[in-house]
Amino acid sequence: MKSLAHSALRALADGEFHSGEAIAQTAGMSRGSVWLAMRELEAAGLTVYKVRGRGYRLSQALDLLDADAVRTALGTEAGDFFVEVVDAVESTNTSLLQRAAAGAPHATVLAAEWQTAGRGRMGRVWQSGIGGGLTFSVLWRFEQAQAGWAD
């Protein structure tokens, strides 16, 4: 899903009607791009209603991920974690492994609104729809090598 579709999604997340013009202004896109964004949201499995004179709305409100809200909920532990929320990713785990190899710090949390090609247990495909679940991975670095865990 393109970033314009995510911008439109954020505008519609409250479940209320929003005119195409208002969405275009808020998201910094053209009215034609709004129409294309609505088609993308539908292709991603969301139900978008369009009513002449009222605009667009989702079938239900969505609670989208918010890194600042997560940090607030962590309270005094917030400083112990680096929290990043992305709109879409193939796999939070694969992406975080790449970041780990590039030196991402201990306790990095990568959460995604939409995961398209994740892996579950035993290599099974794991996909998450928008607003359908919480998809995240945590990078946890250990001081001792895995071989020493059993001691």
Word description of this protein:
- The chain is an alpha+beta fold and 151 residues long.
- It has helices spanning 3-12, 20-27, 31-43, 67-74, 92-101, and strands at 48-51, 55-58, 82-89, 108-119, 125-128, 135-139.
- Strands 3, 4, 5 and 6 form a 4-stranded mixed beta sheet that branches. The chain has a two-stranded antiparallel ribbon with strand order 1-2.
- Strand 4 and strand 5 (125-128) form a beta hairpin.
CATH second-level architecture of the largest domain:
2-Layer Sandwich
CATH class (first level) name of the largest domain: Alpha Beta
Low-confidence stretches: none
Could you report the average pLDDT, rounded to the nearest whole number? 88
Q: Considering the protein shown, what is the CATH homologous superfamily of the largest domain?
A: Bira Bifunctional Protein, Domain 2
**How far apart lie the N and C ends?**
47 Å
CATH-defined fold name of the largest domain: BirA Bifunctional Protein, domain 2
Indicate the structural class.
alpha+beta
Percent of residues in β-strands: 15-25%
Instruction: Name the shape in a single word.
Output: elongated
Q: What's the total count of β strands?
A: 6
Supply the number of helical segments. 5
Based on CA atoms alone, the radius of gyration comes out at: 19 Å
Number of domains: 2
Kindly state the percentage of residues in helix.
25-40%
Largest sheet: number of strands, sense, barrel closure: 4 strands, mixed
Return the string of H and E elements. HHHEEHEHEEE
